[in-house]
Amino acid sequence: MSFDPSNPLIVQGDHTVLLETMSRRADEARDALLAFAELVKSPEYVHTWRITPLSLWNAASAGHTAESVVELLARLAKYPVPDHIPVSIHDKMGRYGRLRLVRDGDWLALEADDPLDLDAVRHLKPVQDLLGEPLGPCAQRVSPQRRGELKQVLTSCGHPVEDLAGFDDGEPLELQLDRRCRLRGYQVSAVDAFMTGPAGGSGVVVLPCGAGKTLVGIAAMARLGMRTLVLCTGHTALLQWKRAILEHTTLEPDQVGEYSSARKELRPVTLTTYQLLTWRPAKHEPPAHFRLFHEGRWGLIVYDEVHLLPAPIFRETAWLQARRRLGLTATLVREDGREGDVFSLIGPKRFDLPWKELEHQGWIAAATCVEVRVALSGPDRAAYVSASPRVKSKLSALNARKGPVVEKLLARHPDEAILVLGTWVDQLRFLARRFDFPVITGKTPHKERDQLFAAFRAGAIRVLGLSRVGNFAVDLPDASVAVQISGTFGSRQEEAQRLGRVLRPKAGSNTATFYTVVTADSREQDFAERRQLFLAEQGYPYRIEVAG
User: Fold this and answer.
1) Quick one: which of 7, 208, 382, 518 has the most CB atoms within 10 Å?
2) pLDDT tens-digit series, residues 348-372
3) What residues make up the domain containing 34?
């Protein structure tokens, strides 16, 4: 194959791929890389992607082939691809499906077509205690109770398992979408991808905030017609799910229950929160409400914002592999590095769409991303230079010179609905007093939160401050400007969620602006560069302004 020096990709021998962003084919290459690689660096002109075993397994589970990945790299590469890279891609992607879990009467069996594939894992020490008696050279018995744990361990050892053992049906539920509910084409495709195929019924759908992930979950519920448990990120998200279910389905209010600190309703569709499920009466006692997973004959468990799944729920999910499981998220990035546990216990990625593609189709707002850099004052710079790394992070986040910048940004958008997003509550409250806007924090009572959200939606409040409680599942469709004044270190996950707060489609001008106010030449600027990996990955250019 001849190579074009104007192509955007340079494939390196360590499985990294350099993307030259000024190339005319850069957007095409970025969208293609999203399917099987992950972005690790994004300086202005050359982005660095990495091809990992997990990224290749997710690609394989979503229907991509090693041949298609290798062909794409060769077609878009500036120079010849190192000879061992196609071999490695074929090897890694070929591992997905070599080991399979299937039904064997009341038991399960781990099987392979080649006995060497089974021999490669049956003698691994972490695996030995999870396997039962041999069923011949190509199969070994597995207890149904060890199904999740085995998949988790084998994934961590580099041997992903395709789970074909099926699911136990839950209690039937007469449920249909309301006749006025119209699914978008990509939402139908997402549900189809989740439901179809030999392993259909478990996996993750990745869509941006504002693209209707909730409706995908509801449509999956209707498609299955079984009792459903929905796990939400918080009480506000729970109420939004409840409203959406009642609006878009034929269910009556007494069929949709809220399992919260205030109510313990066990209904055909039950909604609860991660916080409640992981609550412990005392530090050394087990979570008090895990019985909820087992008390209902659930046919489907929906994990909203699955990238936030707490570790204790991973452990419980390992026991729930006979239940259908749907994860919904805007990004598979986890700050704790447990993406492999999502893959093995919830399921592989079944559906994904580049955010920019949905923007071009008008389903989410077109966003402009701006980083505003502001210097520390002389005394603050002197204190910063001699401080510890932890104190440097705090000093840069709480830079007093951010206040005048926020004032200018609020004035720049006098007629738009604006969210001011921050991590440090005292900083948010100070700015709220200075510029006269309300703030919602983790300590704001649920009733007051709902009233403030309603007032913002109605236009009675133009500017609303949100701490980290506003990162997830807050439906504020008219918000068109976000001003981020501080963040949680280098969290790509948080950047995705906060950008999503202003991406919901809007009447009229379907545009949004996302500002990040950053202290120049500081640890915060370093963190911002990591957070912005997500923006670059999804194709959002961002410009830099220097505050005067």
Assistant:
1) 518
2) 999 988 888 888 888 888 888 999 9
3) 9-95
